[in-house]
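[Automated response] Your request has been received and processed.

Submitted sequence:
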Amino acid sequence: MTPSKRTSLITTNYTGHIEDTSILQRFLCTDLSNQRIPVTPLFIAHYHAYPCTVIIQASTSLGKLHVPSIRRYLEIDHKHNSTEDIIKREYHPIVRSFYITNFLANLGNGIMIDCENCQLINDIENPNKYKSDGYYDYFLIVEKLRINYLPEHDIYVNDELASKLSSFYVLQSKSTIIQVF
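Generated structure:
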């Protein structure tokens, strides 16, 4: 009788796939109640190195990064398959749809991009003329995202990729910033 080999139902290209079962066992022993994507451990599992990081914000002071434009750029210019990303979603009752709240994209070349706390807003100015991301002119935005990378990509990440990603923005309307006391 031949021993059965364990198989995974997911592709090894999936960002959350971990080949080493000892790493998986350590994940299971940690507290996952906060439900954040464990970016650094996943980077280490994939590349066997601690990542360098850079934080990206919109290239203008009132700007918020436009998530769909960033994801589209990664798919087109980097030939990234977004179906392999780790994605977390929440339901938005006004637009009656699920939207991305967090994602981790592994570009497969020693670069991972993670984005947390995305939100849908509709009170924006749209200088880049993006189409809305749902009903009622809502846009999926985030304050900042992080690029995790191997050191050999330092020049590319800091001189090109960071600049390009920060150019995908919408402007938060001043009326949403003013608080009444």
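Summary generated for your ticket: Residues 154-166 form the longest helix (13 residues). Residues 21-177 form one domain.
If you did not submit this request, please reply to this message.
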